[in-house]
Design a protein that fits this description.
By secondary structure, the protein is α/β, with parallel strands linked by helices. It contains ten helices and ten strands. The strands form four sheets. The protein has a three-stranded parallel β-sheet. The chain starts with 5 loop residues before the first strand and ends in a 6-residue tail after the last helix. Bound molecules: glutamic acid. The site of glutamic acid has 7 residues, from loops.
């Protein structure tokens, strides 16, 4: 018998859940139940400027309404910053991090200047790659910028990280009818020198997700297609930090009638609004295309 599998649903409490979240949450909990495994709920709240306790409370309420039951205590990322700091320190000791101090506007100006000479590479989300300017700062310049209180980010030296880790693959679930897996080549270079921590927050999405999946024994990551390319960075960080790699499945994103993916920013109707209009949890299952519970 294969060991029990562990799934997770990891929302960020920066708004109300919509149908896309309901699909992801229900799919994870359904798959865990079908496999005889567990599904954990994790609150990804490292962004203190956007995450709010009332959204977290609403997430618990919405998930319970959907018929989901989860183990407690729930891991809340903001309560585990030391674990992420330790992972960051480890990468720093490996010589793979460097500080950068530009504001977003300054980076945009650097990229605009570089674009005068031809197209500048963009990451899979469409953002221009960081031009690596801060890599050549001297120790004195770094000390001076720190003292002056410039915005500081710790970046992964992607070329050095890839050189240390060597070529990597990750396992994608769903290659065959019985959930067979297939290997996908990791392409972390597409992201350039990603930010792994900032002065105000000693972590980032990429770093905390990798640390937590390992700490919580997650074997199966099931999440939206929008995070497909991030998996390459996650696989690289797992390799560098000596962490096990889960198997990944990226599900299709729910879209509205105009084809736009559901999101808070385009005002997609929240689960609470559906509920206020009289929808039931089975209606939601039907709407997202999942079978009713046995
Ligand atoms: N917290 C992320 C989100 O809400 C999900 C992270 C993940 O599943 O890896 O989009």
């Amino acid at each position: 018998m294969s060991p029990a599998r562990t799934f997770r649903f990891a929302p960020s409490p920066n708004g109300h859940l919509h149908l896309g979240h309901a699909y992801s949450a229900l799919l994870n909990f359904d798959l865990a139940r079908q496999s005889g495994g567990r599904c954990l709920l994790r609150i990804e709240d490292i962004d203190g400027t956007r995450c709010r306790p009332e959204f977290e409370a609403a997430i618990f309420d919405d998930l319970a309404w959907l018929g989901i039951a989860w183990e407690t205590p729930v891991r809340r990322q903001s309560e585990h910053l030391d674990a992420y700091r330790a992972a960051c320190d480890r990468l720093a000791h490996m010589g793979l991090l460097y500080p950068s101090f530009e504001s977003r506007t300054e980076i945009a100006q650097l990229v605009a200047a570089a674009e005068a000479n031809g197209p500048w590479p963009r990451d899979p989300d469409g953002a221009p790659l960081y031009p690596g300017t801060a890599k050549s700062l001297t120790a004195d310049e770094v000390a001076h910028l720190k003292e002056a209180g410039a915005p500081m980010a710790l970046r992964l030296d992607m070329a050095a990280a890839i050189a240390q880790a060597g070529p990597l693959v990750w396992q994608k679930r769903g290659a065959g009818p019985d959930g067979e897996t297939a290997e996908v080549a990791a392409r972390p270079a597409a992201w350039g020198d990603v930010i792994l921590a900032r002065k105000e927050v000693p972590t980032s999405y990429h770093l905390s997700v990798v640390v937590d999946d390992a700490l919580q024994g997650v074997t199966d990551v099931v999440r939206g297609q929008d995070l497909f390319w991030s998996t390459s960075v996650h696989r690289l960080l797992q390799q560098l930090l000596g962490l096990p790699a889960p198997v990944y499945r990226h599900h299709a994103l729910l879209r509205d009638q105009s084809g736009a993916k559901l999101s808070k920013s385009i005002g997609s109707r929240s689960l609470r609004e559906w509920r206020a209009e009289g929808a039931t949890a089975s209606d939601i299952r039907r709407m997202v295309g999942l079978p009713q519970q046995p």
